[in-house]
Design a protein that fits this description.
Blueprint lengths: L1 E4 L6 E3 L9 E6 L6 H12 L4 E7 L4 E6 L5 H10 L7 E8 L4 H12 L4 E7 L4 E6 L3 H10 L3 E4 L3 H42 L3 H8 L2 H17 L3 H12 L5 H21 L13 H25 L1 H8 L4 E6 L2 E6 L8 E4 L8 E7 L1 E4 L1 H4 L5 E3 L4 E2 L4 E2 L4 E7 L5 H14 L3 H11 L1 H19 L4 H15 L3 H20 L2 E3 L3 H5 L20 E5 L7 H12 L5 H12 L62
Parallel strand pairs: 2-19
Antiparallel strand pairs: 1-20, 3-5, 4-5, 6-8, 6-9, 7-8, 10-11, 10-12, 12-18, 13-16, 13-18, 14-15, 14-17
Helix pairs in contact: 1-14, 5-6, 5-7, 5-10, 7-9, 7-10, 8-9, 9-10, 9-16, 10-17, 11-17, 13-17, 14-17, 15-16, 19-20
């Protein structure tokens, strides 16, 4: 008897139950958050809007999930975010417009769309019957505006395109950070060497004094540091001081105040030293320049870490087909997957991914559904069978009717579930948020106290020591790590799980796992390697194992069935040469063996086509009692 061990890492779901009814929810992207105090500030602003039941802002995903207890104007939420100094980026929405017949219809629809609050641009195309709208308005408001002027509108699913645009935007942000970091490092290095080298390298101070001179050295440091602060460091001043003036300081405020204090003091020491007390004429250009470079380094590493955590989502998105072969006007045309509509007739060719969920209307084939079911054995599909988008068609051709497209497909729902899990907030994060909300103001207060204590009780020159230590408190007390630690760990954990086939429906499941004592596995497919392997081959007396395996493998080498491949791989790994099969006029019992030289079943022979491949219809009547192997059927 031939035994096979097969399975697949199945996509299991770790879930937690939630009580209560479903409330209306809005998700908004947010730009400009840099630390955990930003999260607390945005949550506090949104919570003040009437009708908001709860708010959860995630620093790693840069999104706000808002649950409502009654209808709330979307623009009121956006204005609340903008009021505390952050932005909701504009997005692009595509609508399918019905009922337009002429150019005046186009003008009427465009006018209606542009009148919706939050819309910055609207373009309507009569030929494609599409409207492209850019802004922050909701889809519901846009559809209502079109409906009001007598036309029909429905959203066109551009989820994949939006994901690609978001990924490109993040890549551009990382590239900009890398550029600014490189520029800051190049400019700050000579400043650091000129100033700190005098303290760390013997004879460096005398060498600088005897060559370019101390005063000229300060002038050079002034120019280089000014470039650092004005170009790569400008982002901190652009956001930090406005936040400070709103009495809502964040990490940018700490960097802006600290570097400005160090640079301002050094500038006075360089150009107006008489204004400073005796013994306090020192420059701290290197502090301002190096601080900017180090903070940019931290931001770049954070951005790169965020990029890695989204790789699991990208892999899932990569399972989606990019195009589909659709029957239009009596012929098959290739169109983008976003343009496939429910009810379309779609053709799936051998080896292609199924583009959408559908029902087979014509053809017969085997489909690899391991990404959904975890089972490695392809499933036979015939007329009336259902198929899932993202699964892989094998050798046959199929024609299917689309039953779910775009965001309604099973794969799209899995991707959305993983994204929601990555963006969720764990209970432990609530404690961190409470601390970080008051962290930055507390740091600034501590810096002021540090300055006063050193100024009053510090050694001479007290002013210099007071300034240096106050700036040190401002810069070192960075709350970024507290704000990013938990959401980043969620993204990494859920992402790593998705790579290994384990899906978390909610982020809370990760925190609950620490209390797990027993893990129950529902089937072997969760633990095995995902492919069948020939483990045993029992041979009847009087036959040689290698000869039998060679003949069976020779026939199965023409099959794509996973069990057939397992038999062939076993023979190849054992170094067994497969015999050559030549054409014969003998009519085989199976069409799959037609044209092959198959010995007629006798007391010592057997039609091997009927023994191994469970997909071949045949009878056992011709099999002799002295068959070299026992027939096995896949049930």
């Amino acid at each position: 008897m031939s035994n096979f061990n097969y399975g697949k890492h199945t996509m299991s779901m770790a879930t937690t139950s939630s009580a209560g009814g479903q409330a209306a929810a809005i998700s908004l992207p947010i730009e400009g958050m840099t630390c955990a105090s930003c999260v607390g500030r945005v949550e506090a602003a949104l919570a003040k809007v009437e009708g908001v039941a709860s708010v959860s802002v995630n620093l790693a995903t840069e999104r706000a999930d808002i649950r409502l207890n009654r209808p709330v104007d979307r623009m009121a939420l956006i204005q609340a975010i903008e009021k505390v100094g952050y932005d909701v980026p504009q997005g692009t929405i595509e609508l399918a417009i019905g009922g337009m017949t002429c150019a005046s219809c186009v003008g009427r629809v465009e006018k209606a769309l542009k009148a919706v609050p939050g819309v910055t641009e609207a373009v309507v195309n009569l030929a494609t019957e599409r409207a492209t709208v850019r802004g922050v308005a909701s889809v519901q408001d846009l559809i209502a505006a079109v409906d009001k002027v007598g036309y029909e509108a429905s959203p066109v699913d551009t989820g994949m395109q939006a994901d690609e645009e978001a990924a490109e935007k993040k890549d551009a942000e990382r590239a900009e950070l890398k550029r600014d970091l490189t520029l800051a490092a190049v400019l700050a290095l000579p400043v650091f060497v000129l100033e700190m080298g005098s303290h760390m390298i013997p004879g460096m101070h005398e060498w600088v004094a005897s060559t370019i001179g101390i005063q000229q050295s300060w002038y050079l440091q002034f120019v280089l540091t000014l470039l650092v602060l004005a170009i790569p460091g400008w982002r901190f001043y652009e956001k930090g001081f406005p936040a400070l003036f709103r009495l809502g300081p964040d990490m940018n405020s700490l960097v802006a105040v600290g570097t400005a204090a160090a640079f301002g003091y050094s500038m006075v020491a360089t150009f107006a030293p008489s204004l400073l007390p005796a013994g306090t004429v020192n420059v701290y250009y290197e502090a301002a320049a190096v601080i900017v470079a180090l903070i940019l380094l931290g931001r770049f590493l954070e951005a790169r870490a965020k990029g890695r955590t989204s790789e699991a989502i990208k892999r899932l998105i990569g399972l989606q087909a990019k195009e589909a072969h659709v029957l239009r006007d009596g012929r098959i045309v290739d169109i983008p997957i976003n343009d496939v509509a429910q009810g379309d007739i779609v053709e799936v060719r051998p080896g292609e991914r199924v583009p959408v969920d559908g029902e087979v209307t014509e053809g017969r084939s085997f489909v690899d559904e391991s990404m959904i079911t975890g089972e490695p054995i392809p499933v036979e599909k015939a007329e009336g069978s259902t198929v899932v988008g993202g699964t892989v068609n094998q050798k046959g051709a199929l024609t299917l009717r689309a039953t779910a497209v775009g965001g309604q497909t099973m794969l799209a729902q899995i991707i959305r579930m993983v994204e929601q899990a990555q963006g969720s907030k764990l209970p432990i994060q609530a404690v961190v948020d409470k601390v970080t909300l008051w962290f930055v103001p507390a740091v600034m207060l501590a810096a002021v106290l540090t300055f006063l204590v050193w100024l009053v009780f510090g050694p001479s020159p007290a002013l210099s020591f007071a300034l240096v230590n106050a700036v040190a408190v401002l810069i070192i007390a960075c709350p970024c790590a507290m704000g990013l630690a938990t959401p980043t760990s969620i993204m990494v954990g859920t992402g790593r799980g998705a790579e290994m086939g384990v899906l978390f429906r909610k982020g809370e499941a990760l925190q609950l796992l620490k209390d797990a004592k027993v893990v129950a596995v529902d089937k072997t497919g969760t633990l095995t390697e995902g492919r069948p392997v020939l483990t045993d081959l029992e041979i009847a007396d009087g036959f040689d194992r290698n000869q039998v395996l060679a003949k069976v493998a020779a026939v199965e080498s023409r099959s794509e069935h996973p069990i057939a491949r397992a038999i062939v791989e076993s023979a190849v790994e054992g170094g067994i040469a497969l015999p050559t099969m030549t054409p014969s006029a003998y009519p085989a019992t199976s069409s799959a063996c037609a044209g092959l030289e198959i010995p007629k079943p006798t007391a010592t022979g057997v039609d091997v086509c009927c023994l191994i491949d469970a997909t071949i219809p045949c009878t056992l009547d011709a099999i002799s009692a002295r068959s070299p192997v026992t027939p096995v059927r896949d049930t």
